[in-house]
Design a protein that fits this description.
44% helix, three-stranded antiparallel sheet, Aspartate Aminotransferase, domain 1
């Protein structure tokens, strides 16, 4: 979701971008770690304020706003992607690799820390 508030009297444009990602991961490997199903969502909002000069306002500001919105969306999606990777993917790997593996496959350190 994208919101733009244009304040003509102070020459500022306020942008708000909200990104929501839903994840559902299903994996089945009975011989190794069994069945695994994980689901979740992550929502992040990013707000920025940019100065808009009178010349841009007078000649139409669509390109100006599209450029700013695109940059904010990219930054927000990068942050969401990184968080999804660390929260869901890496944490799931850690749990599977330490909590469900047979003792034969665990290293000495994993056994001690388990």
């Amino acid at each position: 979701m994208v919101t733009v508030d244009l304040e003509k009297h102070d020459g500022k444009a306020r942008y708000r971008v909200t990104t929501t990602v839903f994840l559902k991961m299903i994996s089945a490997n009975p011989a190794s770690y069994g069945n695994l199903e994980i689901a979740g969502n992550l929502t992040r909002t990013r707000e920025e304020t940019c100065s808009v000069d009178q010349k841009t306002l007078a000649h139409g500001s669509d390109d100006f706003h599209i450029g700013n919105i695109g940059r904010i969306i990219e930054a927000n999606e990068t942050e969401v992607r990184q968080e999804m990777d660390s929260i869901y993917i890496n944490k799931t790997k850690q749990i599977v690799n330490t909590g469900r593996l047979k003792e034969d496959y665990m290293t000495r350190d994993e056994k001690l820390n388990f």
